[in-house]
Structure formats: structure tokens, C-alpha cells
């Protein structure tokens, strides 16, 4: 959960438990980030940040996490919403290689998620109520075998 305009730094660590790992293309929806650092081995919180590029880091929405390495990103959470961060390999997404960043609304209408449009139907019908409506329809009665 991130506050609006909060400055964020995240370090992703690639692991290789059975010597079969690969690089992972990681993608963030809803935000761009700066690629401020990367390296091989285990990230060292004391020494590795000293090599971060804060002068001219590339601005991206997808980056490759190296096999047996790490990648550091930085961004300002200025787009309210729920934004998916995931590996682009579909199998890895299904294995749980994903997360979300929830960016809270800012203090004004312009920095907050828009209210739903008044003519949109509410999302209050449950699957059960839709099923009951279907069972009571003429099409269901025609196909029903007594």
C-alpha cells in the first residue's frame, strides 16, 4: 500500500535453488519506473546502493531480472489504483511470481481515482442470483428435461 506521490525503491532478488533458473522479464502496469541498479549475486544493502545510477537512469515499465542477480527500481507513486507487477512468462505468473502495488488517492479530485459513471450498472448481482434468473427464463424451460 503506497501513499500518493510516495517515493518507492524496490530491489528484486533472483534466486536459483536448483540450478535451473532463467532471467525473468518483469513488468509493472500503471506506472513507469527508473532502473537504478542491477548486479549479480545476492544484493548487499550496504555496498550495492552506492553504485545506483541517479543521474540518467532509463525509465521503463519492463525490466529483466538476471539469473542469480538483482535489480533495483525507483518510482514515484503518482497514479492511484491497483497495479499488477508480474513476470511476463505466463507459467511464472500462475506460480505466484506477481504482486500488486496499491496507490492511494491523492488529496484532490485530479489526483484520485474517478468515481464510476452514473449510468453503469452496479456490481451487486451474485452468480447465484444470475443463475436463478437463467433457470426462470423461457430458454431454460425449453431445454429442461423433466
From TrEMBL:
Keywords: Metal-binding, Oxidoreductase. Residues 2-106 form the Plastocyanin-like domain. GO terms for molecular function: copper ion binding; oxidoreductase activity. Gene3D superfamilies: Cupredoxins - blue copper proteins. SUPFAM superfamilies: Cupredoxins. It comes from the Eukaryota. Belongs to the multicopper oxidase family. This is Plastocyanin-like domain-containing protein. It comes from Quercus lobata.
